[in-house]
Queue: 3 jobs
Job 1
Amino acid sequence: MQNASAVPVVPPPLVREDSLWFSDATLIIQAERSVFRVFPGILAAKSPVFHDMLAFPQPENGEAIDGCPVVHLTDSAIDTAYFLKAIFHYDFFEAWPSDVDFHIISGVLRLSQKYQVDPLKKRALRHISERCPSSLDQWGVKQWAVHPILLVNLAREVSADWILPTALASCCWLLAEELVHGVASATGHATLAPSDILLCMYALGQFQTTWTNRVLAFLWTPFSIPGCVSPAACFTARVGYRRDAEDWREDDMGVLDLWDEHDWSNLREDVCGACFAAMQVSHQLARREYWDALPLIFGLPDWDTLLARRAAALE
């Protein structure tokens, strides 16, 4: 009886990517089980890494498909496909503000950095950067339906530190199980690095106590607002709203999302004009204080430094 362990393992067949299979091209790229037939001269012209890689003479008895030498990449097949399409199909990866899927952007960004295709890298970085808030005024306007774990991991990989404050802050409000065990994505299971998990746990404690209290302090401090025409009624209303806001904190809402335009609209009906105006100013100052502190909470440089890095990366 033949030992089952001795049966050779037959690898799955190679899959040809038709949109990246040019019949007159002379180079085969293989990533995982996917193969692409492309023009080596174009790759070499776009990428210094491929230029150096392809400069080495191919051995006469080297691996070949359809008479073309094969170059094996360690990258994922899907990222390689996105990257090569961005090079060989001019309309595949259009510049901002075109609507491009996050997984395409991240695949192009990772490989354009690895293979030093700077124009593609800058284009991908702009797509990411423009969709992630980098100022308090942009918060709530440029919200991107991308899981924050994916954003954090990509930002870490390509050193896009200016994305990290808001992405890490969003991770803080994930359910504990999701924060620790990660999330499934189109390209596999993604988890935060242990150091980032610890950062988020540390920051969440500050958000739920210190910063939530500061951002909501306008509802009951000071006890008496100068110019108030009905101190007792206004203070009673303010305390009632603060009590409601305490319940909202239990819903794992972010610090900047605890009080919105709907809440202001309701408050306007219950307090005098002087109190309402003063509370708006106080609330905005607290939000600004939180925003300025956000990078420092995660051990990052201040916003001025981060935005200078952003400008340098995109120039």
Note: The chain has a mean pLDDT of 92.
Job 2
Amino acid sequence: MERTDSNNQLTLPAELYLLACDLETEKLTKRDVIGNVLRAAVLVELTDRGCLTDDGGKARTVGDRRTGDPVLDDALRGISADKPRKWKAQVQQHRKQGFQAVEQQLERGRLIGIERRTWRYDRIVVKDQALVKRLRAEVVETLTSGRPVEDYSTRQAALTALAAVGQFPTVTSGKERREHKKRIKALTERAGEAGPALKKALADMDIATAVAVGAAISAGQN
């Protein structure tokens, strides 16, 4: 499936935010990992645009290049001002701020409407549901078509890989991810350094959660 003009107007992190939206329940899914996923998407797009490069396993900015997108450029300035970090560490940086920046950008662009709630998760209303359905169809096609991974652009591979690694239930089921495990791995590698880095960052989160749960259980038994 080729990208449409309307798709091309959105950044990769914006597309992934929309993919995480459940159109029926009007909620954002995977809130525990969405910050990491969007940060990885920012890194993929900055690399794809020639603003970031890999230098011995670390992300480095390329000159004073800018994209013209405020969210991407703000992230780029932050990376430039900071010490060089490995890709996994970059995925773990500024997750909350990056998430809020993408969400606010979509809200200002009237692509989503947000009903702020005090005691429940915010209600997220996607204005152009047809766009989200096209994005989901693109992900499914990329994942299941059998076409060589090299036929897809870095950005297309990343859209599918990051949604799959983030385990977005709005896009793929656990069964589908198991069936296409090798394909997801290939697409993740095709996405560049940020794809595998996201997988490692989420694995660290799982380990930390397991340790915390184990400690709580142990403390309760004593």
Note: The chain is about 60% helix and 10% strand.
Job 3
Amino acid sequence: MLRQVPLALVCFRLLLGFAVFGLCWAPPTPPLRQLLAGLVVLGLLSDIFDGIIARRLGVATAKLRRLDSSVDTIFWLCVVAGVVRFCPRFLPNNAGWIGVVLGLEALTYGVSYARFRKEIALHTLGAKLWTLLLTAMLLQLLLTGQTGWLFGACVALGIVSRLEILGIVCILRSWAADIPTLYHALQLRRGQPIRRHPLFNG
């Protein structure tokens, strides 16, 4: 049963994404704002700990990592779509930059499928940092209706991290999961072993 905890956390995050999207159609009230913020934080925590627990238990298979990446994408799309509904002025004011980040995300998946017939599961350090920044921005938006400088920082890091992922997918000779940075991808291409942090990439 313990070995099923990582998979359970992944499924839990998927349900959280659908719950956030559904609740965002209700009229905004302070208690609902707090509830939505709490659900987003739970989703982030499940994202952090599913990989750590899977590596500790020795069940961090390629299949699980691919599922984890796909659920991550679905969860954040649900959250962003829900927040757009919850804060209707957010999308019209920022549609261009949001489209750029989402377009790059779609491009990374498209290139990965074209090259390897598999979705990406890189879990780069840049993508992890971007997730934390995205969470902070969405929490501020949910709780206050404003984003301030966090939105610009989130867009900038989102673009940089997506471009890094795209570079990694193009550099790798074969599909691989948990590549911390572009530098590590270059090492793999040269046939050199890479070191991964036990907490972040196994």
Note: Residues 96 and 150 are 16 Å apart (CA to CA).
